[in-house]
Design goal:
This protein is an alpha+beta fold. It contains 13 helices and 34 strands. The strands form eleven sheets. Strands 17-28-29-34-31-32 form a six-stranded antiparallel sheet, covered by helices on one side. Strands 18, 19, 20, 22, 25 and 27 form a six-stranded antiparallel sheet that branches.
Length: 636
């Protein structure tokens, strides 16, 4: 039955009423607080630099890169790279384009959301500083020293070098800021808006010349076709440009901008991969040079596609965004929260605001009411629902800490990137008061990693580097089997059946080895250890989780593999039929099953959503239904 709007909104309100907690707020009563970002801001009058200019006259707005916590609890602003006190310079610089651009977006959104003139002035100053960093070729210098001197070639070296010699993350973020800047200022300051438009068109011309010239061509990556027209081969970088292009097009931008937006969005959408039962579980992959890498930082792909879908009137762009948010994100959250890297195993379990904010923005941008319920679980990271069990954001000061390690240690520095994305999240939550404010230490029953080296049999190999160039060996090692070899794992018991995904190194060979996987007398499946041509991938072969066709039965603890030829095994991913995240009185469940499951969960009301994020049913938590590939939210 298709739910009515009243029914769907009732679910969101119920979440806020049943499971929310009262959180501290800033003096304004809002979650957002720009005080720490204001602290990071500075003004500079740079010496003349050939080809660099900006709008008007006077000092430029800039932003310090890092803020290190001092023993007395205060913060010290510092730049990037080694500092030379004699020359008052850094190996990289004090201020950088990436953070200036994104901070401008914060102040623009704050101004438009709350109408505060101080935010408008700050945004204008930062946009003037940003455009000064742009070179006549449309590209952008990344670093600036404390006195405003440009540093096109940083130490350590960053590519491209010089930083304004080609497309870059910082060019993409410049497009983001200029697009939102034009949309904000066009009705307030036409002269400034026209200047921003001209600079944005200059950046778009650079992207056409350097990136979109490859539109419609494809790279081969371990046998798969991936779009060759992404900025720095990244859907992550491209997604941030798409956010700016979408704002610009909605505000009446040029036909050139609309074409660029359409082409970039098409490339991002092509990065959707997997299924409800196959890695990466409908995620949009961020890197066009690897089929084995998903990272949280910068993964704005779903929010970018949602924005492009709206700006272009293209419903088809929303489909992969829904897959990422309704499919992958609930599984990510039940597997331990917004970890930084599945490479392809969840190895980098650090969690940072840049990744958390990307998950939150995507859920809210796609806009389905059920995804707003999932957004509450993601946002709770800021309020203590993380491995440290402590808040990573302080509304009283506006500080967002620089992350939580995999073993639960908070990095209490508060640099520009964390502060920016913390504020973007808080602005989004202030704009969506129906997203519940959850808090508390989470408990998980989801994806489990079993290292291949824990088996009996085979030979453990430790390569010189865990990083392969496109992926990473879990635990820095793998298990090698020869022809006729076998290995046996003794697993922990589970009351649920579990998907088994051996993570294996697939190779491009005409005579691939084959492994057969069994538990007791039952064959779970077989894997041909073969992949397609290497193409532009940095390493031969591909680490891939491969789903066995038959699940491991409930309470089964024995798993055996037999190899017909030489193979390399990295690890096992075990995923229960129903994965669970519990946070206070609220529970998130997601399914990798092929048919609906009914489970009993503490709480009152269960909201069951399909794999496309649509509300399927609302019922008693004692008989909560979880749809195949879908998710369910249970409230206390």
């Amino acid at each position: 039955m298709k739910p009515t709007r009243r029914t769907v909104l009732g679910g969101a309100v119920a979440l806020a009423a049943a499971s929310a907690v009262t959180l501290p707020a800033s003096a304004s009563g809002r979650l957002s607080n720009l005080a720490h970002l204001d602290f990071l801001r500075a003004s500079v009058t740079p010496p003349p630099a050939a080809g660099h200019s900006t709008f008007g006259s006077g000092p430029l707005g800039v932003l310090w890169t890092y803020a290190d916590r001092q023993p007395d609890g205060s913060y010290k602003r510092i730049g990037g790279g080694a500092y030379d006190p004699v020359s008052n310079t850094y190996g990289q610089g004090a201020f950088n384009t990436d953070d200036i651009a994104r901070a401008a977006v914060v102040y623009l959104r704050h101004w438009r959301q709350f109408g505060e003139r101080t935010s408008m002035v700050a945004a204008r100053d930062l946009l003037r500083g940003l455009t000064y960093l742009q070179s006549p070729n449309g590209n952008v210098v990344l670093w600036m020293q404390p006195d405003g001197t440009l540093n096109p070639s940083a130490d350590p070296v960053e590519l491209p070098d010089p930083s304004d010699s080609g497309p870059s993350y910082w060019l993409a973020r410049t497009v983001w800021a200029l697009g939102e800047g034009y949309a904000a200022f066009r009705s307030q300051d036409r002269a400034f808006a026209d200047f921003l438009r001209a600079r944005l068109e200059l950046a778009i011309a650079a992207l056409e010349r350097q990136v979109l010239i490859r539109y419609g061509t494809w790279n081969v990556v371990d046998g798969r076709r991936l779009p060759a027209w992404l900025i720095v081969n990244g859907a992550d970088a491209t997604s941030e440009a798409v956010l700016g292009l979408s704002a610009y097009v909605r505000a009446g931008g040029s036909a050139r901008a609309r074409r660029a937006l359409s082409q970039f969005a098409e490339g991002i959408a092509a990065m959707s991969a997997g299924s409800s039962r196959d890695w990466p579980f409908r995620a949009l992959l961020p890197w066009g040079e690897s089929i084995s890498d998903w990272h949280a930082w910068g993964a704005q792909m779903p929010s970018a596609l949602a924005a492009a879908s709206s700006a272009l009137g293209s419903r088809k762009l929303l489909t992969p965004a829904i897959g990422d948010t309704a499919g992958f994100t609930p599984l990510l959250m039940t597997a331990g929260g917004p970890d930084n890297g599945w490479l392809p195993v969840p190895i980098d379990r650090t969690q940072i605001a840049y990744g958390v904010d990307a998950r939150l923005q995507g859920l809210l941008a796609v806009g389905l009411p059920g995804l707003k319920q999932v957004a509450a679980f993601v946002a709770a990271w800021y309020f203590g629902a993380n491995r440290a069990g402590e808040a990573t954001y302080d509304p009283a000061t506006g500080r967002t800490y620089d992350g939580v390690s995999g073993d639960g240690v908070i990095n209490r520095n508060s640099g520009a990137e964390s502060s920016i994305h913390g504020q973007l999240s808080m602005l989004a939550l202030d704009a969506n008061p129906d997203v519940a404010r959850l808090a508390g230490r989470p408990t998980y029953d989801g994806l489990q990693i079993v290292e291949a080296e824990s088996a009996v049999g085979g030979q453990v190999v430790t390569p010189p580097s865990a990083w392969t160039g496109e992926s990473q060996w879990s635990n820095g090692a793998y298990l090698s089997l020869d022809a006729g070899g076998s290995a046996t794992w003794t697993l922990s018991a589970s009351p649920q059946a579990r998907l088994v995904l051996p993570v294996v190194n697939l190779v491009d060979t005409p005579n691939p080895a084959r492994t057969t996987w069994t538990t007791g007398s039952r064959v779970l499946g077989a894997i041909n250890h073969v992949t397609g041509p290497q193409g532009i991938s940095a390493a031969p072969g591909a680490l891939q989780p491969i789903t066995l066709r038959t699940s491991l039965p409930a309470y089964a603890t024995n798993l055996v593999v037999a190899a017909s030829g030489p193979v390399q095994l990295d690890s096992l991913l075990l995923i229960p039929t129903i994965s669970t995240l519990r946070l206070g009185a609220a529970t998130l469940l997601t399914s990798v099953d092929t048919h609906p499951r009914t489970v009993s969960v503490p709480g009152r009301v269960a909201y069951s959503y399909t794999s496309s994020g649509e509300l399927h049913s609302r019922g008693n938590a004692a008989r909560a239904v979880v749809q195949p590939g879908g998710f369910t939210v249970v409230l206390g």
